[in-house]
Amino acid sequence: MNSVTKKVLAEYGYSADEITSKKFGTGHINSTYLISIAGETDRLILQSINQNVFREPLIIAENVRLVAKYLKDHYPSYLFVSCIPTIRGEEMAFVDETYWRLTKYIPNSIAYETLNDPRQAFEAAVQFGRLSKLLDGFETSLLKPSIPGFHDLNLRYDQFKEALQNAHAELRSKASVQIEQALRHSFIVDYFNSYKDSPEFPDRVMHHDTKISNMLFDKDTNEGICVIDLDTLMAGKFISDLGDMMRTYLCPFSENEPDTDKIFIRQEYFEAIIKGYLKEMGSILTPIEKDLILFSGKYLIYMQALRFLADYLNGSVYYPVAYPEQNLDRTINQFKLLSEFFNKEKVLQSIVDECLSN
């Protein structure tokens, strides 16, 4: 155990001789450790907060605290992974210029990096939908954005246009096809703007990062237990969570796959997502939201394509890259996924309609 970890755990009342720790998980944003306490069967998760991504970690702490209190008051049996307070009663410990949080480790749980069964997609959609449904009565204006504009398509499009204007000529030339695709699909921005201010398209409490690794499953039954990684828990449109599930669950390969022949949509996973999400959210979605179910996939896929493309044009300063053209390859990957989405639109919409009618 390193000296920093010892100092952090001391803020929670633990001494170095009673604790052991080891690196845990595969996350790239925050450093995570599994903590064992001598004489105790329960284990803990200690995690640092990456302040290059989350500039104001105390916003995360306050958002989680507010939601945890609401759920405890209204749905006390719901498993919500909130922070354990320090000995000073604070949600996070601040040690060596870094914020840390401590949470309970959920026993007999497992998180997956990839999906290999539509049932997993269904269970994840149920859990993400359930969290938003239970928070339907929560006042979303109380939550502050931990990443301002995170899923704001207008902002992401403006950032792309700015990157395009300032990009080196060589980068613009190499990305000319993808730039044309980005501009040609700007109707997605316009379509979103035609609805975004409607009272029938309300702000809800959204997780905003629904990749499968942010879900815990029971090791024995493979049923969903709860959602984790609440850094981006904030107000947003329902399309954020549903669309992100579509973007990350539908294709068997991630955005890092450069072979576009491997990029296709698994319809059985799409159906599983829709059924699982509507199982929880179907009773509270407005008619406009139901009309935008399929659009949510286009929204998130296009947004991520814009983000990769903008970063490439900016010289790859945000997303870590293993080779110079990786962000361009990621952009190509996402536009292929978007193309597959449009090609299968009628089939996918028929699945949505059938699920809504059941």
Explained architecture:
By secondary structure, this protein is α+β, with helices and mostly antiparallel strands. It folds into 2 domains: 103 residues, Phosphorylase Kinase, domain 1 (2-Layer Sandwich); 240 residues, Aminoglycoside phosphotransferase (APH), C-terminal lobe (Aminoglycoside 3'-phosphotransferase, Chain: A, domain 2), CATH 3.90.1200. The chain contains 13 helices and 10 strands. The strands form 3 sheets. A 5-stranded antiparallel β-sheet has the order 1-2-3-5-4, covered by helices on one side. A 3-stranded antiparallel β-sheet has the order 6-8-9. A two-stranded antiparallel ribbon has the order 7-10. β1 and β2 form a beta hairpin. The radius of gyration is 21 Å and the shape is globular. The termini are far apart.
Strand content: 5-15%
**What overall form do the CA principal axes indicate?**
globular
Cα distance spanning the termini: 54 Å
Q: Report the sheet with the most strands, covering strand number, pairing sense and barrel closure.
A: 5 strands, antiparallel
Number of helices: 13
Architecture of the largest domain, CATH level 2?
Alpha-Beta Complex
Counting helices, strands and paired strands, the structural category is alpha+beta
Task: Return the string of H and E elements.
Answer: HEEEHEEEHHHHHEEEEHHHHHH
Low-confidence stretches: none
Number of strands: 10
CATH top level of the largest domain is Alpha Beta
Round the mean pLDDT to the nearest integer and report it.
94
Counted up, domains total 2
The largest beta-sheet arranges its strands as 1-2-3-5-4
Radius of gyration: 21 Å
User: What is the percent of helical residues?
Assistant: 40-55%
